[in-house]
Amino acid sequence: MDNNEKIRKRYDRASSFYDFFEQPMEIMTLKKWRTEVMRELHGDVLEVGVGTGKNIQYYPDNINVTAIDFSEKMLEKAREKSEKYNKKVKLIHMDAQNMKFPDNNFDCVFTTCVFCSVPDPVKGLKEIKRVCKDDGKIIMIEHERSENKVVGLLMDMFNPLTLNLYGANINRRTVDNIKNAGFTKIEVTNLKGDILKKIIIHNFKNRC
Ligand SMILES: C[S@@+](CC[C@H](N)C(=O)[O-])C[C@H]1O[C@@H](n2cnc3c(N)ncnc32)[C@H](O)[C@@H]1O
Q1: Could you count the other beta carbons within 10 Å of the beta carbon of residue 88?
Q2: Is 2 exposed, middle or buried (0-12, 13-18, 19+ CB in 10 A)?
Q3: Which DSSP symbol is given to 57?
Q4: What backbone phi and psi angles, to 5 degrees, belong to 182?
Q5: 3-202 sits in which CATH class?
Q6: Rounded to an integer, what distance in angstroms lies between the CA atom of residue 16 and that of residue 170?
Q7: Ligand 1 pocket check: which of 66, 69, 92, 116 to mutate, most ligand atoms within 8 Å of Cβ?
């Protein structure tokens, strides 16, 4: 089984307990940042890695959202949420590393806690760059490895656990991956220590 398939299957399995397990993080911090992200969005919007649809209830009514995930089981939960909250969203089974959208298609792209688990993060980020319009905006709430020596080491130690349970790496260096994908105008704000970050990227494709 290739790595993509392995991670996808882990999320299929996690779909039944994901919301329950994530509830403490949701209450402590994420809920606030999910609503904050929504204020940044306009026009045609792509959510990458929609998961069980935790952002759906916060989608403003004046944007058109397409949301993708490569786990069918996570998408099923997202479909339930779109019905529950009566939100119109195009939910599509698709791999972020190989998107079927044309170039320059979305005004905004956003992710929340996704690039810890995309098997080839730089490939996925390059795809986001491609499908987001030139001058478009990419908003990400992502966690990454702490630069604190002790905390960073602990994250390395516990990484195999979260990777096996969920498919999520807690020790990824996502901001470095964003730079490696070719983005240059990146604003990073620390939200919780140096682990949880809000990242805004201005997608200037045709300029150096
Ligand atoms: C930790 S969950 C986060 C879900 C949601 N964004 C949230 O805030 O709760 C990561 C999600 O990214 C999805 N994912 C990971 N790699 C992906 C890929 N290559 N293509 C599409 N979805 C992917 C997983 O299936 C999972 O649903």
Answers
A1: 9
A2: exposed
A3: G
A4: 105, 5
A5: alpha beta
A6: 21
A7: 69
What was the pLDDT predicted at 207?
53
Q: Which of 43, 203, 195, 50 is nearest to 128 (CA)?
A: 203
Q: Calculate how far, in angstroms, residue 8's C-alpha sits from the geometric centre of ligand 1.
A: 9
Question: pLDDT at position 26, please?
Answer: 83
CA neighbor of 63 nearest in space, from 92, 38, 32, 27 = 38
Could you tell me if 48 and 105 are in contact, meaning their C-beta atoms sit under 8 angstroms apart? no
Q: Name the DSSP class of 113.
A: S
User: Which of residues 1 and 2 earns the better pLDDT score?
Assistant: 2
Instruction: For 29, list phi and psi in degrees, rounded to 5.
Output: -150, -45
Residue 67 has pLDDT above 50, yes or no: yes
Kindly report the protein residue whose alpha carbon is nearest to atom 5 of ligand 1.
Answer: 51
How sure is the predictor about 206, in pLDDT bands with cuts at 50, 70 and 90?
low
Task: Specify burial of residue 189 (Cβ count, 10 A radius: 0-12, 13-18, 19+).
Answer: exposed
Percentage of the chain exceeding pLDDT 70: 98
Question: Across residues 3-22, what is the average pLDDT?
Answer: 93
pTM here is 0.96
